[in-house]
Structures
1.
Amino acid sequence: MLLVELRIHGRGGQGSVAMAEMIAGAAFAEGKFAQAFPYLGGGGERRGAPVQAYARISDSPIKLREKIEEPDLVIVQDPTIMEMVDVLSGLKKDGVILFNSESTIELSREDVRAFFVPASRIAIETIGRPIMNTALIGALARITGLVSVDAVAEAIREKFPGEIAEKNVLAVRKAYEQVGGVE
Amino acid sequence: MPGKKIFISGDEAVAEAVRMARPHVISAYPITPQTVTVERISDFVEDGSLKSEYLHVESEHSAMSAAIGAAAVGARTFTATSSQGLLYMAETLPYASGARFPIVMMNANRTVATPWALLSDHRDSLSQLDSGWMQVYCEDAQEAFDMILQAYRIAEDPRVMSPVMVNLDGFILTHTYEMVDLPDQEEVDAFLPPYRTENRMDLEEPRTVCYASLDEYMEFHMKQEFDMRKARAVIAEVDRDFGIRFGRQYGGLLEKYRCEDADAVIFTLGSVTGTVRSVIDSMRGNGYRVGLVKMRFVRPFPEDEVVDIAEKVKAIGVLDRDLSIGYEGIVFSNVSSSVLRACSAPAMVNYIGGLGGRNISKDNIQEMFLELLRAADGEKGKRVRFVNVGSEYDG
């Protein structure tokens, strides 16, 4: 049975919850079972504060409602939160961690696979604003194959109207091409 | 609108169900984590896809009062609340149930202050168990959708005529996105015909509601109690009919999962049920005889079903997301009083967990089952245990 658990780190206002929803929505569009949910720990989410969002993707119905404490995948929208938050916490051995970053970041663990994509720059080029969640989904699609670019585009078009959706889809495609470290 | 599978949150699922149930009047005041539901419903009224009066009231007390007023002239009504909002509304709840108005209310389960917090437990709704409302608890967004529709059928049944509170765990269900299968509007209309009642104020046949009485006071509430007992059969009947029409059935008052030869079972309410199912599946694979009793309705209480279970198992754990401070879990007290009627006496352990949104993990649940299996073998332990807290606190 396939069950992939994913955690997203960001700051309030960066669209982490929307990102979890779009990833899970894309998996759903491809016929998989999925859940997306916000941080179920504090409830004090606000603009600028560190936030987390989660998703589960499976090939069979998902009954689990426990918190995700040992994810297979971690996405870091804003590496500056690493001063406050242990983004590697619980990440499974050989798990994937994807950073929004122009350059590589030194990590305290060697048993995980790290990837870097300049998602903020891609977002400014395509959307005109540093809202990097959709670019990161493009990179995720390339690294893991968990969701296809087409399904992601479909989930984005469900969520956003016309031109905004198309700009975000472009961000997805660019990040898909530009993510570093993928063979 | 054709039937389709969509990817939405629990809050949105409730709003979609309300749209299909076609209430005449919605009165609501927003409160986290119910807010998305009432926002979506107001969108539907605005875009014309739901032809209802939407009353933006200034408080929860007014929300229920307005619903009572609308129900008093025979309207199908909906409201939604959570936590402090439900407590603020509390004074009006027995007015609605005593007047026998079949109001349907969604409650997004959230803890109550102090400490102030937004996350889920059942202390809000369970504090209102004696208000004369039926209470049902949902496991996922689909069940929440389905139970809004079932709730109207049950509440408006002439044998019952009592209001229903449909409970969803805050955030864990209200804010989780997942697949929900929406039926055709025509199928819903066939399942849930328009509400017609004699129990209303009418210029042609003047009568009063919410009246004052001393002479018939006892008999009045006895009638309410006897009709609530009849609701047990109506709940089962409506669930069966729903199953035939929509292909989904929930077991009526409660659901037993893998209980056939179980030595130990855990009673649950709400979203933690799914996690318990997962643990049971894996423990069964290793030969452990464990099962689940998913409590769906707490009022009316499924007493005969609980007696039957108690006579077949050796140990019962009740997982309460609440605590009646000064005693024990509220569900545990309720279950225990039915277990006393059983011909055998299973070991009973109360697990208090998930207060203020504290995680209840698969590991926590497996530990409960292992302890219950030891209790089934005669080991004596504590009556009340606290889940997922430091060992120094587990009094």
2.
Amino acid sequence: MPTLTIDNKIVTVPSGATILDAAIAAGSRVPTLCHDDKLHPYGACRICMVEVMGTPRRMVASCTTPAANNMVIETMSPAVIEARKAVLEFLLINHPLDCPVCDKAGDCRLQDLVHEYGLGASKFDEEKRQLPPDLSSAVIERNANRCILCGKCVRICKEQNAVTALAFTRRGGKSRISTSCDRPLECEFCGECVEICPVGALSSKQFKHKARTWSLEETLSTCLYCGNGCPIKLLTRKGRVVRVSPARNNYLCARGRFGWDAVHHEERLLVPKMRKDGVLVDCTWGEALSHIAVELKKIKEKRGAAAIGGLGSIRTTNEDNYVFQKFMRSVIGTNNVDLLARLKMPRGLNTAIFSAELASLGESDVILVLDPDVAEINPLTGIEIARAINQKGRDLILLNSGPGKLNRIASVKLKAGSAEIALSELIAAIGGDARAKSEGIAEAVSLLMKARTISIVLPAELSPVVVDRAQYLARLLGQTTFIPLIRRGNLQGALDMGVLPNYYPGYREINPPETQGMNAVEMLRAAAAGTLGALYIMGDDPIGNSPEIFLMLKSLDLLVVQDIFLTATAKLADVVLPAASFVEKSGTVTNLERRLRSLAQAEEPLGESKPDWMILQNLARTMGVPMTYASAAEIMNEIRTVVPAYNTLTVGACWPRELSPALETGAGLSLSDDTFLKRELITADRLLFSSGSMISRSREIGTLSRMKTAERKASHRS
Amino acid sequence: MLSPGVIARIREARRQYPDARAAVLPALHLVQEEAGHLSAEVMGPIAELLDVPESDVFGAATFYALFRWKPGGRHVISVCHNLPCSLLGAESIIEHLSRKLGVAEGQVTEDGRFSFQRIECIGRCDGAPAMLVDDEYHGELTPEKIDELLARYA
Amino acid sequence: MSIKPVAGENESMNQMLLKRISIPNSADIDVAMAHGAYASVEKAYATRPVDVIDEMKRSGLRGRGGAGFPTGTKWSFAAMDPKMPRYLICNADEGEPGTFKDRFILEQDPHLLIEGMIIAAYAIRAVRGYIYLRGEYPVAFGILNRAIAKAYEKGFLGSNIRGKGVAFDLSVHRGAGAYICGEETSLIESLEGKRGQPRVRPPFPANAGAWGMPTVVNNVETLANVPFVISLGSEAYAQIGSEGSTGTKIFSVSGAVMKPGGYELPMGTTLREIIYTHAGGIRGGRRLKAIIPGGVSTPMLTPDHLDVKMDFNSLLSAGSMLGSGAVIVMDDSTCMVKATAVIARFFEHESCGKCTSCREGTGWLSRIYQRLVAGKGRENDIDVLLDICKKMKGTCFCPLGEGALQPVLSSIRYFRADYERCIRKDGCDAKPCKG
Ligand SMILES: Cc1cc2nc3c(=O)[nH]c(=O)nc-3n(C[C@H](O)[C@H](O)[C@H](O)COP(=O)(O)O)c2cc1C
Ligand code: SF4
Ligand code: FES
């Protein structure tokens, strides 16, 4: 714990801290360009120079020089100011002065520093570098002339993302950050490089010339594209989102950063639609809601409430789902509520075995990943694994991966028929069974046996056998935590809210069992058999996922679909209600860590669309049942009283698994055993760029998706 | 894109190191020795063979001055132009070569026999001005000596 | 090979390192062994590794790669780090222009180097070694590979050296044209297959070098001294040379002298003796104008400095550095602007590009020099050059950038008149500028 003096202030810092860390602790402001706490120390830009007093005085880069006992540092001495001016002058030698047309202006570290240090006219009077910009990459534009070669993009792409699409190329004054052979970018297009670039060398095409950064307003929200639920910042200009950034220096994948543009897609539903003479035509809210109210009442009177069912959504908020199940239960009077997503849900998810904080990955000596697609299913989970390996030197055991990015950094590449086989063989090998094993088992066992702490990332398609074996393996090893993979948005929250036929909110079991409702599978079968009269679908598109379902839903008396697009399912509906998108409403969601995250409204709902809960509330009122929530927050207050885990849960915190002892077994939460429907419903394995009705309407992601398809075709051909 | 012979030799080189990435430079040398130069087409195969990101292979390959990206002549002449050689007339040697071969620096003669380029100090300053023809050193160069030397290379 | 290796003809009694090279086929292991090669290995093996390190410390041997760090101390740092395996790397990058001393050993006495490495590896308990050889030394590449193969055959390398249970494997790693790879952390990056850019220190190579393991990097000449420290004993060894600089030094003398070549002389030999006694004085009856004493990154000296002793401390006092001991001699026909322009171009070409000051500074300097020698000098060019040097000083990541300033600052300091004439375009007393 060295103690040193910085600008006449005495500070004590942890050993291993740099002078830069110490300066921050002392409240001194030291500018940096190439340094980032997320990355290994690099020390290239030289703007962070400080003076170490003594004889002789020394200038050092504070970001890479360890703080030592009794050092006396000045961060603003005349020599320091001179050195920083020198560095800035050097940087401006080749940096074009095109700030007026640069999207980074206003948010540019270099511009700020030049301003702050009052740089006068440069003595530089030679030719500037002229490099061609890369305009042909998807989503991202690269302008090498603006580049100051701080290397942050290269390092984040390697150290954090493990993608390494970018690299320093050439040498000296000809150095250039580029791709292999200067080709257009081929990567995950997460845009982390754009985010971390301190100048305008890397920029988002989506944002190009959309707005000057200083004219933007910020709204903090959450990305709903997958179970990671990353915090985002919606940047708006004149009430319209123009850009999405990470809320606080966190990672975002391509879907999170660029995929939001779907909310402005021209196919957004703006007004309600009703089927008249067999065709869907625009109508007023009044017409639509009274039609639904009348029809629902008719069916309920004729065939009973049990002939009506509802499917909730993992793409909407906790509040929407809470109101949805409440509407079904108290307005309609049925427990026929469920989530189609449960068909793909790992059995045993939500049981006590998931400790699930992603941070535990970085704390584990060894990470065993049983799903090669981890980085596509839950990109942030992939990043946390890469960080643990690249930055903390942990070991990765990876099952059956192709040439994917984690493959390159894995210590052991397991080749086994399936997760189940891999687990069985690991267990057998640990038990001393010396028979021939799949490739990598022996190495994996030796790593696992040495490890004090282990994380196991379970496969997204999880079977009870895998869960059992994994738990058994964990008992043989040291301290083990399990990380689930959850494809879509708010599965956890929707379950917590009781969008389940057999549980009320907070997993209060419905008793007696006869009073439980039909699950999603049963509802679909009943619809096909003609025993279900009405189905109310909020924010899901079963036909889009699996066209065969068209036949099952065809004979319903009433199909209501509430969505932001006219999905394949909506096209079959009798009434279609336009819902507000995630940027147009407030609320909360719960991610795969059981962490509560909030959404805040950044735009007015498009056209006549409304938040899902509000539509349901209006319908309840039309049906004569008073519902009087004034806001999502008010709904949350009610949730807190009903769901014990949410009682005192604050945004950003995870609810501890002990709060739901009823879930120990996880029984009844998954429908994944239903092999018939599983085959029917889970047709395509929809990965990073091609999943869901929303993402498929993102222009940016569409570009990427087409590119990937072309690549795949090309590689098949060759 | 890599010949089986080169692949085998890269694999052999790789065994000298605890980590495959270390074989990137040996691999680039081996490829250049066989093909005469590097190209975009070999970056991917080398990367794959050694399990290194392709951009890193390209980044390394473009860092080092001795890797060429276009075909040289059958014989590559590298003339030292650093201080000791330049003090003893390296520039006039380069001029002479250019005139004699009828091509500018970095180009290949029409008959494909020679190409010539500048190189940093080749550690033959005691024989300045000096040059390398392929892997052979020649020193104390004069225009006459060069004329005589070139005739020896087919 | 068509150049004769012009090692010094003088047979001073202190000649050690270059003693064998005048013997025909000295690179052949049998010839070398007949003349004493590998004799010190068993002597070293008879003592403990720590004794070898102590012996090295007592000898006063300092690194010949440029920085002059005490070799025994460097070894002890790596030996104290508990991590295994440890690596020994021979720095055979010899990239400092004007330097060709290591070449004699690499091409003509490779077994001396291998012998030194075997002992060094034993001292630090390294089981793996690499010779990082510059790409510009293709002849040495073949010779070293053959020598290593022979050393394996004779049991001096491998898993059980000479039946003593000591293991040491060795191979050659070829560079590919990058001066910066002589800098030891860049060298390690390059060995690992990356771009040769310097690493942040700490951690130092002694603790986290190649593949994160304790690593010693030593120059060829340094390692070639090791067998002599062992065979002579540290006390006798320390008798050679001068205060603070023990042993001999191979000086690479080039430029405007009658007999350019490598001269192995005791540390502390004066410039005058080197240039006039050994290298035969200035060519063509010209007058001496300037001397670069230790390679192009060391400050130039003038005829006033002829009596400076060539050793670490004396050169520092004279405002320069011993560097690699590459003495580049310039006569009065040399335009110092032109000479410095060549050096400036070299540094621009060799800057690795990592840090701002060096990348941009070397480029800016060089652009001004190219303009000057093209006859397009401007009134304020000298001021701008000095100003760029001031900006680069102390702000570069590694010593390459700092080295790039030395020729500029020293040539302006001693030969400002050349610059002024060049800018005024009223002709030099040297050869006319082109352009
Ligand atoms: C730019 C630069 C170039 C260098 N080039 C060489 C070189 O070519 N050969 C060498 O032995 N040392 C070179 N060095 C010094 C090495 O970094 C290192 O100090 C040396 O190899 C240590 O060996 P020694 O202790 O035996 O001298 C260079 C240093 C710098 C900063
Ligand atoms: S950021 Fe520091 S902060 Fe980076 S090199 Fe620059 S030198 Fe340092
Ligand atoms: S300067 Fe030309 S060989 Fe040394």
